[in-house]
Amino acid sequence: MLSETPLPSSFARQSRTIGVSSRPSSTPLGKTSARYGEQVPTPHYGQPRYRVIADELRERIESGAIPPGALLPAESVLTAEFGASRGTVRQAIAVLREERLVATERGRGTYTSPLRPESGLQQGSQPQLREREVPADRELAALFAVEVGATLVEQESVTRTEGVVRTVVRSYQLPPASTRQA
């Protein structure tokens, strides 16, 4: 059996300084250590950890590994995967939120944006516009306060991405006053 012996009171007041190895490291040096006054190795090559995580998540979103409208993994899953603190993961998600790649809903989680901002600008996704005159049905006549069958102008916008229809928007308006009286 080991018995514990009390330490002298002078020993408890002593402090020990831990030295830093002067051995060269192959890991790049990052910020200066507040404790030791020397640069310490950083595994993420001088870039803040949250940026590294944001870059990885952005790459997954843009490659389609995380599809548009999908739920991102929970913060606890991301902290385990990246070996980072919850605050660091939250900073990374905040960067993606500023870039409008993700949106966070309280109580539901963080989702990738259904339509990426650059997707509307891709080649081949310009909307096709069409305008034509149509007779007003009962619903449109009631909305515009005109008779059923009165002439309205329908404007239709069809957006396709890679040949697939993504959106169809139809709007109606009264024809210009000059054509209505003729």
Question: Can you put this structure into words, describing what you see?
Answer:
This protein has about 180 residues and is α+β, with helices and mostly antiparallel strands. About 30% of the residues lie in helices and about 25% in strands. The protein is built from six helices and seven strands. It has helices at about 10, 50-65, 75-80, 85-100, 140-145, 175-180, and strands spanning about 30, 40, 100-105, 110, 130-135, 150-160, 165-175. A three-stranded antiparallel sheet has the order 5-6-7, with no helix packed on it. Strands 1-2 form a two-stranded antiparallel ribbon. A two-stranded antiparallel sheet has the order 3-4. A hairpin with a 6-residue loop joins strand 1 and strand 2 (about 40). Helix 2 (about 50-65) packs across helix 4 and helix 3 (about 75-80) crosses helix 4. It is elongated. Residues about 10-25 and about 115-120 have low confidence and may be disordered.
Order of helices and strands: HEEHHHEEEHEEH
Strand content: 15-25%
Q: How many DSSP-defined strands?
A: 7
Shape: elongated
What is the strand arrangement across the widest sheet?
5-6-7
List its traits.
182 residues, alpha+beta, three-stranded antiparallel sheet, 7 strands, 24% strand, elongated
